[in-house]
Design goal:
Layout lengths: L8 H26 L4 H22 L7 H25 L5 H8 L2 H12 L7 H18 L12 H21 L8 H22 L13 H26 L4 H4 L2 H17 L5 H32 L7
Helix pairs in contact: 1-4, 1-9, 1-11, 2-3, 2-8, 2-9, 3-7, 3-8, 4-11, 5-7, 5-12, 6-12, 11-12
């Protein structure tokens, strides 16, 4: 059938460019926005609008609305992925350079691997995975540690802790996603989660007192443009490109955005945000990315080996 034919090369390249460079650049957009808009409020506006647009778009195209059970699951995931992950990321970017924040968030595969090994027991700890986890931990220590032998100051401790907690929260949500009842349509599922996340982030902003003393008219054009970029390019266009690629390319290829985004974020922060790149940043980033590459490529092999080892013998059958 014609629908199964491979799409034009330029479309594939454009979609990869979006998830590589647009998603990588959103970290600087967040930093620009939180200079003037409280972090949980800014995150809430981003995901409330993006989620609502995506939800309405899917409804107009005939996709059924999530059931009560699916909304409940989406809301639980929204707490972990949006309130704890994105909320803390936006908060931390008031204290941590955008490029470093992206590198710290790249540790998510590390925590996912640890969860699968220790909690879910869905894969076995191999020597290769153990070394990769230690390398990643070393990268975090380089970025956060107080060592004076490395050029550049270590990042803010509170900001670093918030980012690590955010990465752990996302990894937990990723594991729970497999167990929850969510809409069959990935687009509707993401729209529902973003919308629920936006509502919950707004509530968090209210409880944290972020509405007090905040005046819309005092926000500059640059901050509004940053928010518009996060909504349109980062959430709507970025997600659309990601879902489209998942249906046309292998998950392994699409997953390479996890390696590219931190590098793009560091470079965008340096050239457009005036953020320094010293030996500490270069070494810490390199260690984290090496760890992520090894973990993501080794996980499939480890899971397969563990699955085989866990199966009862069938030699007598």
């Amino acid at each position: 059938m014609e629908a199964d034919s491979k799409p034009a090369t330029w479309k594939i390249l454009l979609a990869f460019a979006i998830i590589y460079f647009v998603w990588g650049s959103t970290f600087l957009a967040i930093r620009v926005g939180v200079r003037e808009v409280p972090p949980f409020l800014l995150a809430g506006m981003r995901f409330f609008i993006a989620g609502l647009v995506l939800y309405l778009w899917m409804r107009l195209h005939g996709t059924p609305s999530p059931t009560f059970r699916e909304w409940r699951a989406a809301s639980v995931l929204a707490v972990l992925m949006f309130v704890f992950d994105y909320g803390l990321l936006f908060w931390a970017e008031r204290r941590v350079p955008s490029g470093i924040a992206a590198v710290m968030m790249a540790t998510i595969p590390m925590f996912m691997a640890l969860g699968e090994i220790v909690v879910l027991r869905s894969q076995r700890l191999t020597l290769r995975l153990a070394v990769a986890l230690l390398i990643g931990l070393g990268g975090v220590v380089v970025l956060v540690g107080p060592s004076s032998s490395l050029a550049g100051a270590s990042i803010d401790t509170a900001g670093a802790c918030a980012l690590i907690f955010a990465a752990i929260s996302w990894s937990i949500a990723s594991s729970l996603t497999r167990k929850f009842s969510l809409p069959a349509s990935k687009a509707m599922s993401s729209g529902a989660q973003m919308f629920a996340g936006g509502v919950l982030l707004m509530l968090a902003a209210l409880l944290l007192g972020e509405f007090r003393g905040f005046h819309l008219e005092a926000v500059s054009r640059g901050a509004w443009l940053a928010l518009a970029y996060l909504i349109v390019a980062g959430s709507i266009a970025g997600f659309t490109a990601y879902v489209w690629l998942i249906h046309h390319e292998s998950p392994t290829k699409v997953g390479t955005y996890a390696y590219v985004n931190p590098v793009v974020a560091v470079l965008v922060g340096y050239f457009f945000g005036g953020e320094p790149i010293g030996l500490r940043t270069i070494l810490g980033t390199a260690l984290v990315l090496v760890s992520v590459v090894v973990i993501t490529t080794a996980s499939k092999e480890a899971k397969a080996a563990w699955a085989v080892a866990s199966q009862p013998s069938t030699e007598t059958e």
